[in-house]
Structure formats: C-alpha cells, structure tokens
Amino acid sequence: MAQAHGHDHTHDHGHAHHASRGRLTTVLALTLVFLVVEVVAGIVTGSLALLADAGHMLTDVAGLVLALLAMKLAERKASPRRTFGYHRAEVLAALTNGLLLLGVAGYILVEAWDRFRDPQPVSSGPVLLVAGVGLLVNVVGALLLRSGARTSLNLRGAYNEVVADAFSSIGVIVGAAVMGATGWHRVDTLVAVAIALFVLPRTWALLREALHVLLEGTPREVDLGELRQAMEGVPGVKTVHDLHVWTLTSGREAMSAHVVVEAGAPSDKILEDLHLILHARFGIDHTTIQIETEPAPLLQITPRAD
C-alpha cells in the first residue's frame, strides 16, 4: 500500500494574487473617499437617496476590507493546527459579503416602502452631480476588478458589490433628473425597488456558491464520473473508490482517492500517470492518492489421480 501527495504553487498564481490585492486597495481608496463626499452631500442637500446610496457604498467598503483581509490571511503558512492554512478565509469573506448585500437589499425594499407612502422633496441638481461622480468611481472600480472576478470568489463578491452600487448610482441619477423635470418624487422609490431586485439574484448566487465550497461540495466544473473514468483508464488501475474532490479556495481544488492496482503493477509509474492526468486534464494539483494492490489470484492445485 502506498500514498502519494502532490501540490503545485506557481509563480504566476503569486503574481496574480499581488496584482489582485493592488487593484482591491485602489478600489477601496476610491470608494472610501467618495463615501465621505456622498455622506456630506446627502446631509447638505437633505437627499435621502444620496444617504441611502452612501449606505450601499459603505457595504462596498466593508466588503473590500474583508476581501483584502482574506487575501492577507491566505498568505499565512499552514501550521500543525491549520494544515490547509487560511485559504478558506477568502470563502468566508465572500459569504460575509453576500450577507451584507442581502441586508442592503432588504433595507432598500423597506426604505422604498416608507418613501412611497411619504415622499420627500429633494434638491435634484446637487444630487445629480454627486451621483454622476459616484457612477464614475464605480465604473473605474468595476473595470479594475473585472478580470479577477472570473477566477476568484472573493473578488467576485467585491465586483458584484461595485456593479450593484453603479446601478444604484444610475438609479439616483435617473430619479434626480425626473424629479428635477417633473417634480414627481415617487420615481425615486421605483428606482430603489429596481436596485433591490437587481441585487437579490446576484447575492443569492454568491451565497450559494460560497456555501457549496464550505460544505466541500464537488466543484461545479469537475465531472466526478468523468474523473473516475479517466483514472481507471490508466494502465494497471483496476478500480477507484472513496473518490472526493473539493475546493480549498478559488482556483485551487483538492482530491483524495483510493486506487486499486493490479498485482505486480509498477505503483510509482501509475502514480506519475495519475498526477499527470489530474493536472493536465482537470487542473487538480493538490492530490492524495492511496494505492491498494489487488490480491494475487490463488493457485488452484488439481489432485493427481492414482
């Protein structure tokens, strides 16, 4: 019986990690500065819409801080107490971001109901100007995070928040323009409901994926049946059992399996072939494979007739 462990950490992953952290830091600085501007403008103009949008942007700041904290924790080395290190911190941050977005959507719907019943007058000119600057900040932030959002669950949560806030800014702009032209203040309420309805499905998707990772579900891009068939197709392999594949963090999957091989088969060569298939075809580098040798067939002795 033999066991083999394999893992591979490339320099490209490290460079991408630092680049993503730099972009997150830039977006956080831009968002934090404009958050202060929007709060001040909301108080000065008496605009509840701007203050609500500032509250939405506050969740962006919280999400970005959590994302940066998670990336920093993920750099910490594994220890005897945490043998996988802190890779799951990224997933926990994504889960927290999703819950924050869910809370924001609920707040918007409640506030929209109150404002529909009791609309308040707003100074539309200053609101239009500040919301336009806010939209520009969100667009810049979304462009900076877009590429990383395709591969990182954590960055995807931050990206979704920035995009959602961009739509919130658009809603404030449209509402301010309509109110300035017609004096119809209930349009702000309708825009708020539209924002909440946009946020909810994206939030649910993020929460579902984060929970799937935390429950160690099979990665959605991995077909477990196809993986088993590929492993059993290696010369010398009889069967594969106790096969498990799970996600450590975004872009890093792990696998463990028991592999039964033919009696007398070269275990080292089989392990090498298995690792090659797992890496090249399925992108799995962190593997634990236990080799089990098939029992040799018993010799049948025919009694000699006297």
Gist?
The chain has 306 residues and is α+β, with helices and mostly antiparallel strands. It has eight helices and four strands, in the order βαααααααββαβ.
Structural notes for this entry:
The protein has 306 residues and is of the alpha+beta class. It contains eight helices and four strands; from the N terminus they run βαααααααββαβ. A hairpin with a 2-residue loop joins β2 (237-249) and β3. α1 (11-45) runs antiparallel to α2 and α2 (48-74) runs antiparallel to α5. The two termini are 44 Å apart.
SSE order and pairing:
Layout: E1 2-6, H1 11-45, H2 48-74, H3 88-117, H4 124-149, H5 153-182, H6 187-214, H7 224-232, E2 237-249, E3 252-261, H8 267-282, E4 286-293
Parallel strand pairs: 3-4
Antiparallel strand pairs: 1-4, 2-3
Tell me the name of the CATH homologous superfamily of the largest domain: Cation efflux protein transmembrane domain
SSE order: EHHHHHHHEEHE
The overall average pLDDT, rounded, is 79
Question: In the CATH classification, which architecture of the largest domain applies?
Answer: Up-down Bundle
Counted beta strands: 4
CATH C-level class of the largest domain: Mainly Alpha
Biggest sheet layout? 4 strands, mixed
Please indicate the count of domains: 2
Strand order of the main beta sheet, please? Answer: 1-4-3-2
CATH topology description of the largest domain: Alpha-lytic protease prodomain-like
Output the structural class: alpha+beta
Shape: elongated
- State which percent range the strand residues make up: 5-15%
Gyration radius over CA: 27 Å
Low-confidence stretches: 6-15
Helix content: 55-70%
